[in-house]
Amino acid sequence: MKASGSDKIVITLCMGSSCFSRGNNVNAELIDRFLRENNLDAAVETHGCLCEGKCKAGPNIRINGELVQGVEPGMITDLLKHKLCGVLR
Ligand code: FES
Fold first, then answer.
1. Is the N or the C terminus of the chain less surrounded, counting Cβ atoms within 10 Å?
2. Full set of structural domains in the chain with CATH
3. 48 alpha carbon to ligand 1 midpoint, in Å?
């Protein structure tokens, strides 16, 4: 987890047991690696949250509040490239 900042992009991963075991355990590591490799640690902060009751469509991630469902680890890099294209160099 990273320090808070008002102008940062916020990625929130559901860490409830369903989302966690179905992919967010791996997604958390992949997101951290992506941010490190692209020097985005200062522009993006990550958080975990508890189950939001949307388990069936998980693994769930929010990017600046926008819910993205069914985020399999195989698609996380493309999702981040798409959602973070404004801050990628
Ligand atoms: S565990 Fe993620 S919505 Fe329930």
1. C
2. 9-83 (3.40.30.10)
3. 11
Could you write out the DSSP letters of every residue in 62-81? EETTEEE----GGGHHHHHH
Mutate to test the pocket of ligand 1, among 14, 22, 25, 50 (most ligand atoms within 8 A of CB): 14
Q: Give the residue, out of 12, 19, 47, with the most ligand 1 atoms within 8 A of its beta carbon, to mutate for a pocket test.
A: 19
53 alpha carbon to ligand 1 midpoint, in Å? 5
Q: How far apart are CA 9 and CA 14, in angstroms?
A: 16
The answer to whether 12 touches 66, Cβ cutoff 8 Å, is no
Q: Say whether pTM exceeds 0.85.
A: yes
